[in-house]
Amino acid sequence: MSQKLTGTTQNLGVMGWPIRHSLSPVLQNAALERAGLDYVYVALPVPPEKLRTAVEGLRAMGFAGWNVTIPHKQAIMPLLDEIDEDARIIGAVNTVVRKDGRLLGYNTDVTGFLMPLQRRHVVLRGKQAALLGAGGAARAVIWGLLREGVSSIAIGVRNPHKAEPLVREFAPYGVLRVYHWEDEAFRAELGETDLLVNTTPLGMTPHTEGMPPVVWQDLKASAFVYDIIYTPAHTRFLREAAVHGHTILNGEEMLVGQGAAAFARWTGQEPDLACMLDALRRELSSRRQP
Description:
This protein is about 40% helix and about 20% strand. It is an alpha/beta fold. It has two domains: about 10-105, 3-Layer(aba) Sandwich (Rossmann fold), CATH 3.40.50.10860; about 110-250, 3-Layer(aba) Sandwich (Rossmann fold).
């Protein structure tokens, strides 16, 4: 980091436990330096039992804001003064902004998910989407798709019974159906799907040969295929999709996009996305070195 730190430097950070693996300091400090802003972004290791103390401490120290990651994204919500609609519906906060002494909670994961689709001019309104997985990562994806006006979302999972509460929760906002991902009915849904998204960790480093069970011949030939995993850059899921002629996208730009949306909320400026993406890729490459 080459930016000069002074007595006027404003503080930002990312709160989690553990936190040493986080890529956010790399992305945010690269963007802050490129923009010439007098901020610094640091990792904030906060064990769950110290969360309330940490939040009040950051408030007292005048932190301009911070990101929130596992395991605090739900637990922090009652400790904040106001929660944005996206965060309320998703049920998780990943960005805190201090404004006039008040702590405001946002969820920028939904923006991060949608941004690379919008940049590629992928139209979602009136289209059919399918998701693989219904865990925590799926919530922002589901809300983003519903907010953009998809006609329906088919969710393929290993255990449909466990996913039913999620479907009921989002049912007021749109049409969702859940299936076992090897069920014939889900395979039929894939034939009408315009966008297929993997929200599971299957295929993530180091278990790179894993993937959800997809019969590619079932999937609509023109379907866009999106995996929110970014390590490796090309999962088995994406490699197979590409072999079958689908346009593919990994999770790198989603990670950058959610960070960029947080940056804009803290600073009032739009960051250099190319700079952030380059910093991410260089850091991931360095971590892969033996």
